[in-house]
Amino acid sequence: MLQGLRAWFWQDWLWFPEGLGWADLENKDGGEVFAKSEDLWVTLPIALCFLIIRQVFEWKVATPLATLLGVREKVRVEASHNPLLESYFRSASKHPAQSAVVTLSKQSGWSERQVQRWFRRRRNQERPNKLKKFREASWRFTFYLLAFFAGLGALVDKPWFYEKEEMWKEFPKMPLIPSQYWYYMIELGFYISLLFSVASDVKRKDFKEQIVHHVATILLISFSWVVNYIRAGTMIMLIHDSSDYLLESAKMFNYAGWRNTCNYIFIVFAMVFFITRLILFPFWIMHATIVYPLSLYPTFFGYYFFNGLLMVLQCLHIFWFLLILRMAIKFLPGNNIVEDERSDRDETDDSEEEEDEEEEKNGKTKNGPVQNGHSPLNNNHRKID
């Protein structure tokens, strides 16, 4: 049954224009070589190698670089041991409603403010520190930078780098060249490694969008390889790598506190992102994959599938550009740092923590002395996390 389903799924008419098919992608004796689906298995050991190299890189390169750039981690006040609150934090909610705070206050003998402070500190303990963020950003920066220039070197002398019509010339009978093979295998292996490590990486506000992006990218690269959309695929990968390394470098300088450097790099990143993702990608790449093939072949399922994946990527481009605009607001007078809108920030500053510590030492809250774990009068005034 599975063999029959597989045979039906890979029928010529689904993935190729009428009159063309898998037979056109057979290797020629002593001559042309074409991409094969079994080639993709090599990306798994490549992904494993990337995971190992990343650990060594973060330990031997990123950590010393963080020290050199002055990445300093803010000292966080740890939440005191409280089994009752810890149980609620893990099993119920990290952000208890006010009614729950009142109940926990009565059960623990603490004031409502002390309960709120405990949850705030406990949440801060689970947030990744700057050093971890810096390590991840420096790893991605290094790969994207090398991948961009390697891809540029592999494509700059190819005719489809300048003429979009060349992406489909003689499709699908376009022989594979070694630079395309390694460009594809390394890029795909890297994105697979990101998907494997996403559970341990810093979780940002666009976590779900990142998962969708990784899956769509892996499907897009794999599919374009199997059906020999390789020329378009290499251009798509180059477009994406052209701005990613700028964002990662801006993050690195942001974590290091180099505010002006971060801001200048972010300006360049925003311009490159807009040009490549919102102009070149839809009006050059997608025009070449959606409009131009219609003048050569009748539509087929593979045409819609491939362009559907590109549509998903373009929607994500628009989503991320909106985040970039939000970050750009920080350039207005009075704002002197760019922060990653996708990251969670600590919920208190140093002055508030110092004030809280002083209150604890004196056995007081901002509303007066604590009596049996409660302030005598707080008028329901509390600080919102």
Taking all Cα atoms into account, the compactness measure Rg is 27 Å
Helix content: 55-70%
What's the average pLDDT?
81
Quote the distance from N terminus to C terminus. Answer: 57 Å
In N-to-C order, the SSE pattern is HHHHHHHHHHHHHEE
Which structural class fits the helix and strand makeup? mainly alpha
Instruction: Count every beta strand, where a strand is a DSSP E run of 2 or more residues.
Output: 2
* Low-pLDDT runs: 349-355, 363-385
| Widest beta sheet: strand line-up | 1-2
Overall geometric form: elongated
- Helical segment tally? 13
Number of domains: 2
How large a portion of the residues is in β-strands, by DSSP E?
under 5%
Give the biggest sheet: 2 strands, antiparallel
Domain Homeobox: 72-129
Biased composition (Polar residues): 368-379
GO cellular component, one term: nucleus
Subcellular location: Endoplasmic reticulum membrane; Nucleus
Can you walk through the features of this model?
- It is a single chain.
- The protein is mainly α and 385 residues long.
- Helix content is 62%, strand content 1%.
- It is built from 13 helices and 2 strands.
- The protein has helices at 2-9, 12-15, 43-69, 83-91, 98-108, 112-126, 130-155, 178-197, 207-226, 230-256, 259-290, 301-328, 350-362, and strands at residues 364-365, 368-369.
- It has a two-stranded antiparallel sheet with strand order 1-2.
- A hairpin with a 2-residue loop joins strand 1 (364-365) and strand 2 (368-369).
- The protein is elongated and about 80 Å long.
- The termini are far apart.
- Keywords: DNA-binding, Endoplasmic reticulum, Homeobox, Lipid biosynthesis, Lipid metabolism, Membrane, Nucleus, Transferase, Transmembrane, Transmembrane helix.
